[in-house]
Design brief:
This protein has 349 residues and is an alpha/beta fold. It has one domain (43-343). It has helices at residues 43-46, 85-97, 113-117, 156-168, 205-208, 225-228, 253-271, and strands at 60-62, 73-80, 135-143, 151-152, 177-183, 188-189, 198-202, 213-218, 278-280, 311-312, 318-319, 321-322, 328-329, 334-336, 341-343. The strands form 6 sheets. It has a 5-stranded mixed β-sheet, with helices on both faces. A hairpin with a 4-residue loop joins strand 14 and strand 15 (341-343). The protein starts with 42 loop residues before the first helix and ends in a 6-residue tail after the last strand.
């Protein structure tokens, strides 16, 4: 449910772990060239599909609740604090890359963000309706002056949403809508950096006026990039033996790391919007969801502290999917209900 820190000594299986140029040549973290991750898994593991988070023991079940099946999914963006134009454009390009084509009906090269989202679209509700493959930004609100301060809690985030609803006059969008709250680098959040990088839940009628799913993700730039922007920043305790920090594809450590967290939370909102649809475990207050099962996995052979085989662009940026406007992103894999394993469009097997 919440995207938590990724500690490299533990394979993530529960929420208590982490987190436009021409097509590049395909380069992996286990080539013989100069490279980033000297700590490679044994060949027997790196060549095994079973090492990519697959397990017959993972009991991801459907609990009869809705998924975001109505098309398109309308995201109402709330920018809390100050964000630059370039930061907003990068994040919006990622969100809009989820849909298979842009307004000019152009598709991003494969592997793409839209192909990554195809795993999410495998999840359905009791009527057989699958998660929508179309996502749009239906509205935006900028809260430049921190209307509820710079020290937020899981409860006060609902006040932030309520203020945005009143100020931007967002419609009551029960069928298609969700909120995405993004807080700037000067804003602290309850448990941020200590335990979470993002989380999702739903609004309370007593605070917002109605129930609608939302996700929150924070900018970790000045607070904890080594936790919430991994693998573009690396914790100090790993300095001698873990992987070196990878170069972010959009040259912004915090934003590139934040985008993977946003992807994680959007996937879980879509498949478990009211916390009563798809999750593992018996406690709905602490569910293990489709992103939680694959934290730290970005490519084939990943696991045990190894992110898997990914790509590098000509400038050295590390990525595994293409987006709109020539963008590139590094997104964690997601649990596939068909493969019963973590899956991504850059898989080599």
């Amino acid at each position: 449910m919440a995207l938590l820190f990724f500690f490299l000594l533990a394979v993530s299986a529960t929420p208590l772990s982490s987190m436009a140029a021409a097509l590049p040549s395909f380069q992996t973290l286990n080539t013989n060239s100069h490279f980033f991750n000297p700590k490679l898994p044994p060949n027997s593991l790196s060549s095994s599909k079973k090492f990519e988070g697959s397990s017959d023991l993972v009991n991801l079940r459907y609990h009869m609740g809705p998924v975001l099946s109505s098309s398109p999914i309308n995201i109402y963006l709330i920018w809390y604090g100050k964000w630059s134009v370039s930061q907003k454009l990068l994040i919006k390009d990622f969100i809009l890359s989820i849909s298979a084509t842009d307004r000019r009906r152009r598709a991003a090269p494969s592997p793409s963000v839209a192909e990554w989202w195809s795993t999410v679209s495998l999840y359905s509700d009791q009527t057989g309706a699958n998660v929508s493959r179309s996502v749009v930004i239906a509205g935006e609100h900028s809260d430049l002056h921190h209307s509820h301060g710079t020290d937020l809690t899981r409860l006060s985030i609902q006040n932030v949403i309520a203020t945005a609803v009143q100020s931007a006059r967002f419609p009551v969008d029960h069928r298609n809508g969700m909120f995405l709250v993004l807080t700037s680098q000067d804003v602290t959040m309850q448990d941020f950096c200590r335990a979470v990088c993002g989380f999702h839940y739903f609004t309370f009628p007593s605070m917002v006026g109605y129930t609608l799913p939302y996700a929150w993700v924070g900018h970790s730039g000045k607070q904890c990039p080594e936790q919430c922007a991994y693998p573009f920043a690396v914790p100090a305790y790993m300095a001698g033996g873990g992987p070196g920090a990878l170069s972010p594809p959009n040259r912004d450590v915090a934003l590139d790391g934040m985008i993977s967290v946003i992807g994680h939370e959007l996937a879980e909102v879509a498949s478990n919007p009211l916390v009563n649809a798809w999750y593992a475990g018996e406690d709905p207050t602490a569910p293990t969801e489709i992103g939680d099962l694959c934290e730290g996995l970005y490519g084939t052979g990943g696991g045990g502290g190894y992110i898997g085989q990914v790509m590098r662009d000509e400038g050295g940026g590390t990525f595994n999917v293409h987006g709109r406007n020539g963008r590139k992103f590094l997104l964690q894999w997601l649990w596939s209900p068909v493969l019963k394993a973590c899956a991504g469009p850059n898989a080599l097997d």
